[in-house]
């Protein structure tokens, strides 16, 4: 994979391992406005705080800014429409899809989804004497442990749990992405990338039973899926986890992201951020760069810290330096905010530590333009300027 970025750290171009090139543009508010796919087609977005039109997809919102209707227009085909209903807590409680189904969702007091139920479907009526009369899956119940979804239990139409299809997810402490999957007496192991996105699932024999790759904004391209197995095959597995903290609902095409729902087609959420501007300047935005950032709760983005060994054989851990973009700073041109300093002047922002203003320095770990960068406060950079740890050459 190859990536290119603009001066704001936003992804502007990426090239797949197969040579396909995608280009992205943004407006001055950070909204994704244009995506050009490998065939050169452009999908344009209206310049607003939320995307209301994108290519052949139209989006309609209520007065509270929540998505209520999504219409997909395709040449030569009838338009497909999804309808969405919300409660007073801004939680999605119903979805009507083009297949004629109605799905309803319930939550607990902590915003965790407890169930989804298909209350209307378009399947033919099963004869009363059929042995399969009540054997349709009409509901899925979810069990949680803190922020971890640990169990999925399908429920038949007659209310009987489908224990043979029940899935249990196993986690490392404090992790939000599972490390193993248990179903029908079979244990499978989940392999993730550096951001916590599942990439492969292996059986205990080391056989790949599921594998997938997300594109930059979350659309799934399967390498190997359950199509290679019968539903009753003991090696049959499914994985609906996507970006860290996200779970895909096939009926709506949305990703449940704890406090909100994410639309992979637009790269945005379908409702405003519950914590307002504390989650960022764009209340519908996911993260400004999905290559190194995630939003596991649908509230605010987190940097996926990593480690590397510098030229002095010292291992560094890289974290995000929190920046107050509204912080006012005295400059030669008058008082400016950090945001103005970065966007207008192209200079590093300031932070306040122990009551003093300090400049955030970007340090080249290898003392050249090819090595990785990490952030240091100016006093720290000055203190270790002549040390082997920072400047071994």
From TrEMBL:
<dbReference type="Pfam" id="PF25023">
    <property type="entry name" value="TEN_YD-shell"/>
</dbReference>
<dbReference type="InterPro" id="IPR050708">
    <property type="entry name" value="T6SS_VgrG/RHS"/>
</dbReference>
<keyword id="KW-0677">Repeat</keyword>
<protein>
    <submittedName>
        <fullName>Rhs family protein</fullName>
    </submittedName>
</protein>
<dbReference type="InterPro" id="IPR006530">
    <property type="entry name" value="YD"/>
</dbReference>
<feature type="domain" description="BAH">
    <location>
        <begin position="115"/>
        <end position="273"/>
    </location>
</feature>
<dbReference type="Pfam" id="PF03527">
    <property type="entry name" value="RHS"/>
</dbReference>
<dbReference type="InterPro" id="IPR001826">
    <property type="entry name" value="RHS"/>
</dbReference>
<comment type="similarity">
    <text>Belongs to the RHS family.</text>
</comment>
<dbReference type="InterPro" id="IPR022385">
    <property type="entry name" value="Rhs_assc_core"/>
</dbReference>
<dbReference type="GO" id="GO:0003682">
    <property type="term" value="F:chromatin binding"/>
</dbReference>
<dbReference type="InterPro" id="IPR001025">
    <property type="entry name" value="BAH_dom"/>
</dbReference>
<dbReference type="InterPro" id="IPR056823">
    <property type="entry name" value="TEN-like_YD-shell"/>
</dbReference>
């Amino acid at each position: 994979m190859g990536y290119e970025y603009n001066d704001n750290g936003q992804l502007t171009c990426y090239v797949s391992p197969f040579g396909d090139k995608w280009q992205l543009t943004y407006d001055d508010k950070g909204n994704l406005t244009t995506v050009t796919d490998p065939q050169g087609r452009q999908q344009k977005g209206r310049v607003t705080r939320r995307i209301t039109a994108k290519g052949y997809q139209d989006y309609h919102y209520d007065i509270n800014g929540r998505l209520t209707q999504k219409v997909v227009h395709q040449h030569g085909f009838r338009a497909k429409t999804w309808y969405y209903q919300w409660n007073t807590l801004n939680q999605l409680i119903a979805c009507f899809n083009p297949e004629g189904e109605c799905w309803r969702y319930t939550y607990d007091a902590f915003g965790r989804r407890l169930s989804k139920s298909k209350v209307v479907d378009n399947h033919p009526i099963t004869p009363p004497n059929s042995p399969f009369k009540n054997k349709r899956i009409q509901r899925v119940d979810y069990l949680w442990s803190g922020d971890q979804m640990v169990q999925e239990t399908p429920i038949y139409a007659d209310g009987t749990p489908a224990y043979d299809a029940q899935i249990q997810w196993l986690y490392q402490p404090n992790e939000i992405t599972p490390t193993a999957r248990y179903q029908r007496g079979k244990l499978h192991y989940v392999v993730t990338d550096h951001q916590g996105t599942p990439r492969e699932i292996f059986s205990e024999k080391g056989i790949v039973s599921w594998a997938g790759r997300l594109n930059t904004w979350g659309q799934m391209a399967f390498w190997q899926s359950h199509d290679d197995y019968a539903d009753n095959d003991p090696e049959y597995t499914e994985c609906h986890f996507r970006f860290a903290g996200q779970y895909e609902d096939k009926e709506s095409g949305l990703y449940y992201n704890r406090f909100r729902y994410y639309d992979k087609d637009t790269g945005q959420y379908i409702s405003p951020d519950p914590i307002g501007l504390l989650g960022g300047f764009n209340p519908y935005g996911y993260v400004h760069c999905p290559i190194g950032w995630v939003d596991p709760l649908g509230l605010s983005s987190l940097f996926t810290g990593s480690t590397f060994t510098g030229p002095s054989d010292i291992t560094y851990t890289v974290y995000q330096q929190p920046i107050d973009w509204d912080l006012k700073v005295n400059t030669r041109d008058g008082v400016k905010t950090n945001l103005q300093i970065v966007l207008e002047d192209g200079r590093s922002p300031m932070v306040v530590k122990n009551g003093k203003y300090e400049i955030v320095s970007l340090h080249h770990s290898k003392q050249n333009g090819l090595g990785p960068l990490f952030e240091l406060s100016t006093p720290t950079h000055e203190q270790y300027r002549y040390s082997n740890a920072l400047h071994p050459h």
